[in-house]
């Protein structure tokens, strides 16, 4: 069987890929945690590539703590940029195709209109900056890569906004949530299916792609919809960004155009509310 190495294999997206690939008979997925697949350890990585000769590698490993990153530029850069570069170098050397995940937070977020892959990225925080550096490093080092920019990932696994809202909502009758940051939520299981589709199709349409769920919302509307669909009576108060101070700045607007992924890779994109319903069922609501 052909081998696929999944770095960050026990994080949120890694677990979603485990779920989506459970019935795959064509490929042998090897899910690596931070120790067995430390993307900063080049000698360990070389041994893994040597042993498994992977046809694909999927990089879900990342530094994703957006606020904390503001105080940890170096570590964030190491994981999001140098780690990605290490994997790209080895992929090029071993002829593997690299699938890498990036973020809507590479955008400044001051324009409206759908953001395409050609639009200039200009991050407003350390997390977005180091993720962009990772993209650039991959594009320089490798030929066979798919970089999928996605946004507002959530699922039944690990930590994410949906689970945070359900946890906070269980204890509090009212929550304040930002209304002037607009984007598209993405069910990470949907993204995992897209990754599998790319692999199973054997597509060679390498490059940078945008993928999120369909539709547009604010964090406030997202939170309100989570409570509505979960059948929970929690009052959500709309806050301006200035009323909910955070260490990191976040883009005000980061809705991405998905035309390229639909046209080149034949991907179908579920509406965010439908996918949210699916996730809530998985969570027992
Ligand atoms: N979550 C989101 O809302 C979004 C995420 N993305 C991107 O999607 C990808 C997947 O995100 P998600 O699954 O949610 O993130 P998680 O934080 O859940 O998973 C990231 C994983 O990477 C691991 N990791 C950290 N450092 C290393 C290292 N040096 N070597 C190997 N593994 C390491 C983490 O381990 P540990 O937890 O032990 O540190 C964690 O298990 C990331 O690239 C992220 O930037 C894009 C848009 C939105
Ligand atoms: C918990 C909470 C958050 N917020 C706001 C803060 C922030 O602007 C927004 C989302 O907060 P979170 O900290 O949960 O999400 P955050 O970590 O900012 O989410 C981002 O993560 C990275 C990894 C990405 O790549 C992005 O696409 C995006 O998903 O909601 C509230 O207004 N009220 C609340 O009670």
Strand order of the largest sheet: 2-1-3-4-5-10
Distance between the termini: 38 Å
Query: For this structure, what is the CATH homologous superfamily of the domain at 2-156 and 186-213 and 256-270?
Result: NAD(P)-binding Rossmann-like Domain
Helix content: 25-40%
Q: Which CATH architecture of the domain at 2-156 and 186-213 and 256-270 is right? A: 3-Layer(aba) Sandwich
Instruction: Please tell me the overall pLDDT.
Output: 98
Number of discrete helical segments:
9
- CATH level 3 topology of the domain at 2-156 and 186-213 and 256-270: Rossmann fold
Number of strands: 12
CATH top level class name of the domain at 2-156 and 186-213 and 256-270: Alpha Beta
Approximately what portion of the residues adopt beta-strand conformation? 15-25%
Largest sheet geometry: 6 strands, parallel
Bound molecules: NADPH dihydro-nicotinamide-adenine-dinucleotide phosphate, dtdp-4-keto-L-rhamnose
Q: Which secondary-structure class do the elements indicate? A: alpha/beta
Low-confidence stretches: none
Radius of gyration: 18 Å
| Order of SSEs | EHEHEHEHEEHEEEHEEHEHH
How would you sum up the global shape?
A: globular
Provide an overview of this structure.
There is one protein chain. With 285 residues, the protein is of the alpha/beta class. The chain has a domain at 2-156 and 186-213 and 256-270: Rossmann fold (3-Layer(aba) Sandwich), CATH 3.40.50.720. 40% of the residues lie in helices and 18% in strands. It is built from 9 helices and 12 strands. The protein has helices at 12-20, 42-52, 73-94, 126-141, 161-171, 188-201, 219-230, 259-265, 272-282; strands at 2-7, 27-32, 56-59, 97-103, 145-150, 153-154, 174-178, 182-183, 186-187, 207-210, 217-218, 235-239. The strands form 4 sheets. Strands 2-1-3-4-5-10 form a 6-stranded parallel β-sheet, sandwiched between helices. It has a two-stranded parallel ribbon with strand order 6-9. Strand 1 (2-7), helix 1 and strand 2 form a beta-alpha-beta unit. Helix 1 (12-20) packs across helix 6 (188-201) and helix 3 (73-94) runs parallel beside helix 4. The longest helix has 22 residues, at 73-94. It is globular, with a radius of gyration of 18 Å. 47% of the residues are buried. The mean pLDDT is 98. Bound molecules: NADPH dihydro-nicotinamide-adenine-dinucleotide phosphate and dtdp-4-keto-L-rhamnose. This is dTDP-4-dehydrorhamnose reductase. Keywords: NADP, Oxidoreductase. Catalyzes the reduction of dTDP-6-deoxy-L-lyxo-4-hexulose to yield dTDP-L-rhamnose. It comes from Flectobacillus roseus. Pathway: Carbohydrate biosynthesis; dTDP-L-rhamnose biosynthesis.
């Amino acid at each position: 069987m052909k081998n696929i190495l999944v770095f960050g294999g026990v994080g949120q997206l890694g677990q979603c890929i485990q779920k989506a690939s459970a019935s795959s008979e064509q490929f042998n997925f090897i899910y690596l945690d931070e120790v067995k697949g430390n993307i900063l350890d080049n000698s360990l990585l070389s041994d893994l590539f040597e042993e498994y000769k992977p046809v694909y590698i999927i990089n879900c490993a990342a530094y994703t703590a957006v606020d904390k990153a503001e105080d940890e530029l170096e570590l964030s850069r190491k994981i999001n940029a140098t780690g990605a570069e290490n994997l790209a170098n080895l992929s090029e050397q071993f002829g593997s195709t690299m699938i890498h995940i990036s973020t809507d937070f590479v955008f400044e977020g001051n324009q409206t209109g759908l953001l395409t892959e050609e639009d200039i990225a200009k991050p407003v925080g350390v997390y977005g900056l180091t993720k962009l550096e990772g993209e650039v490093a991959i594009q320089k080092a490798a030929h066979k890569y798919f970089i999928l920019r996605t946004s507002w990932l959530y699922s039944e696994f690990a930590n994410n906004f949906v689970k945070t809202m359900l946890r906070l909502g269980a204890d509090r009758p009212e929550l304040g949530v930002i209304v002037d940051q607009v984007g598209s939520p993405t069910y990470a299981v949907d993204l995992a299916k897209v990754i599998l589709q790319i692999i199973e199709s054997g597509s060679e349409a390498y490059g940078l792609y945008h993928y999120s769920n369909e539709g547009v919302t604010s964090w406030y509307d997202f939170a309100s919809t989570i409570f509505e669909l979960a059948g929970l009576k929690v009052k959500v108060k709309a806050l301006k960004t200035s009323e909910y101070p955070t260490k990191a700045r976040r883009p005000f607007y980061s809705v991405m155009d998905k035309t390229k992924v639909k046209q080149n890779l034949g991907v179908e994109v579920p509406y965010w509310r439908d996918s949210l319903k699916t996730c809530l069922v998985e969570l027992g609501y």
